[in-house]
Design goal:
By secondary structure, this protein is mainly alpha-helical. The protein has one domain. The protein is 50% helix and 5% strand. It has a two-stranded antiparallel sheet with strand order 1-2. α1 crosses α5. The longest helix is centred in the N-terminal third of the chain and has 27 residues.
């Protein structure tokens, strides 16, 4: 299968950014790209557990099950419902990334996978 590469062009006024902010933007963009690639690989390797076909033949990825494989939970009220360990702990690989950023990267990876991108 042919790889589909998607890019998103965002206009940024470089003259407004300081050298330090440009470097930070470059680092964040690179990190998010690596996280998205990890998510796509995890989806692909666990596709039997995560993916389902709709009546139209489209592939849908179950985001909740993907979270169970990748994200720990520590703030749930019920202690027995908390996940302290997961098979693919992305937080250990990327410790400075917030939970919301992981979910944003997850959503992008799910959209890419559903549109036909494969690792």
């Amino acid at each position: 299968m042919e790889k589909i590469v998607k890019t998103l062009k965002v206009k940024i006024k470089n003259e407004v950014l300081t050298r330090r902010k440009k470097e930070r933007l470059r680092r964040i963009t690179g990190r998010d790209t690596r996280i998205i690639e990890k998510y796509v690989k995890i989806i692909h390797h666990n596709r039997r557990r995560l993916c389902m076909k709709t009546k139209k033949g489209e592939i849908r990825v179950h985001r909740g099950k993907l979270d169970e494989l990748t994200l720990t939970t520590s703030r749930l009220k019920k202690v027995e419902e908390r996940r302290t360990t997961v098979p693919h702990d992305l937080k250990k690989m990327f410790p400075y990334c917030s939970h919301d950023e992981f979910q944003e990267c997850r959503d992008i990876a799910v959209q890419l996978y559903e549109q036909g991108y494969r690792p």
